[in-house]
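Sorry, can you check?
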Amino acid sequence: MKASVLLIDDDENLRTVTIHNLETGGFAVSGAGSGGEGLALFKRELPDVVITDVRLGDMDGLDLLAKIKDESPDTPVIVITAFGSIDMAVEAMRRGAFNFLAKPFDREALRVACAKAVEVSTLKAKNRQLDYEIGKITGSGDMVTASPAMRTMIDTAARVAASEATVLITGESGTGKEVMARYIHQASPRAEGPLVAVNCAAIPPGLMESELFGHKRGAFTGAVKDRRGRFQLARHGTIFLDEIGELDPALQAKMLRVVQEREVEPVGGEGSEAVDVRIICATNRDIKAMTAAGEFREDLYYRLAVVNLHLPSLRERAADIPLLIESFLRRFNAPSGVRFSQTALDRLADHDWPGNIRELQNVVERALILRHGEIIEPGDLNLLTGQSPGAFVLPEIPDEGISLDAVEEELVRMALARAGGNRAAAARMLGIERHKLLYRMEKFAIN
């Protein structure tokens, strides 16, 4: 497949000759006679390389260069001019030009410049794909960042991974706590072993002990055979206890013994069983405040938080939004030409992101489905809300009336969607206790 080139020059004769020269050199070339026409053509065709004159009549070529780089930072742009100077060349390179050629230029020099631009662009794309594939293997695929603080956090996690220390990962819902846990596991000596994840908020308290530690046959009604718990299943690997703050107080004492002794006692058993596991926990609650309020055992907290990694919210790392979007586009196998416009990126940077990275992922997936073209614009984003956190507008009651149950069901569904299915978080969002949320989910047959 031929590499595509967009040539923008208001000199029609030069444009015709240059297009012929590049097509003879094996490129597929489109031409534009003005900056406005060239920018519109660029957005429509997304060429591999852009060549632009500095003097275009309707627009300064260096301003056009800046607009193109805003739209697509990775597209190489070659600047040409008959009025070249060292200062102009420096300014062009400062604005992101790949190369700067003074007219009249040798036709072979332009071909070589285009070929090198395509080569560099292709190499960058392959490196991004390689990073993505490595990320899928190591579990760090979603941990892209331009934030120095987040980079320090990832480096700390890599050092912690080599140890057997228990890790507590904190942060708002959707900040990537499970991704961090997976990264620590994959970077640890236990990487060949299993990573067993347990959502402590999703398992009814009456079943939690059996789920974690297993049970013996006859321990309770329905226990028709011995069953291994999650700790036994994680042998030689890592167990990830998500939403540890939701753990029932009665189980916290038993969990303390497991953390200290690395032994579990199955329900109905007569002795303890040794377990060889690395323990990583996570919570989106303020567990220090819970400890101070007596809702969480202090001794258990200090044993779980040997190393505490606090993940920042997406609001605190807005510069990472373009990098995360690129990662999600690859994950969803988006066509190669699909990308977000700078206006759309600005709109996303201004969003409050109560659902953090999980919400951004959902926005990207919806935009891919609802987009009207290859360039995703603000109208394609369909953000869940444009209101500030905590704002809520009551619906108008129509003349024919409204079903209170229907409104309640919709609120429950919205809270569960915003919380990514986390029932404890959804309950807190609605200001009710978890068992009341479970009652409403059963009432409305919400899975």
About this structure: The chain has four domains: 4-130, 148-310, 314-380, 404-443.
